[in-house]
Amino acid sequence: MLIDEQGNIASNYEQITYMPAHDCNRKLNIYLLYPHRPKYSSRNYSIRIDLFDKLTLDYWTSWYLPIPFQFLLVNRISAQLNIPEVRENTLCALSCGEHGQCMRYTNMNNSVFCRCDQGYSATFCNITYQCQCSNDSFCLAPSICVCPLNKFGSRCYLKRSICQSVNNPCQHNGLCVAIDVRINLYEFICICKEGYQGERC
To answer: CA end-to-end span of the chain, whole Å?
Structure first.
């Protein structure tokens, strides 16, 4: 997502489901395209990437990518992201009030930010907003919903029927994960329990 120097998040973002067992060492091309100009020429912007566990919606870590040439209409940024083996829980000294927690960026030793609780935003998590996401999703910002594993859409109200528990195509309690909705609505991958393998476990 695009953020400004005050930590405000632009309303447009990209969200992907990444599975290390399937996507490890895979190159992803993500385009942050905005229908309206979200940038103000008087502010500096950067990219923030947040990682969540899609099964629990627990926060994992964040990366910070500066935009080098703010005056350009188009920027191409290349980055290699290494996912840490343990969840980020290192606290830091930035005061984030009652509704936020100070976190360090995984790729920047001295850069910190306030990760706000649901319903709160701004640099120090002191502005409230009404969450419009589905009840089983996570409100990251007023206009950003992190969807659970088998839901999608801007507010996480659309269900991916291919992986419904009633007709789970994965055998022996394998985990059915729908492929990115932008690619195919009906394609899925089975993550098999230990001792099972194959396309459908």
So the answer is: 36
162 pLDDT more than 80 = no
pLDDT at position 90: 65
Domain locations along the chain: 160-200
How many of the other CB atoms lie within 10 Å of CB of 53? 11
Quick one: CA dihedral 67, 68, 70, 76, positive or negative?
A: negative
Q: How far apart are CA 170 and CA 189, in angstroms?
A: 8
160-200 folds as: Laminin (2.10.25)
* Distance in angstroms (rounded) separating the CA atoms of residues 35 and 117: 28
Rg over CA atoms, the chain? 18
Average pLDDT over residues 99-120: 89
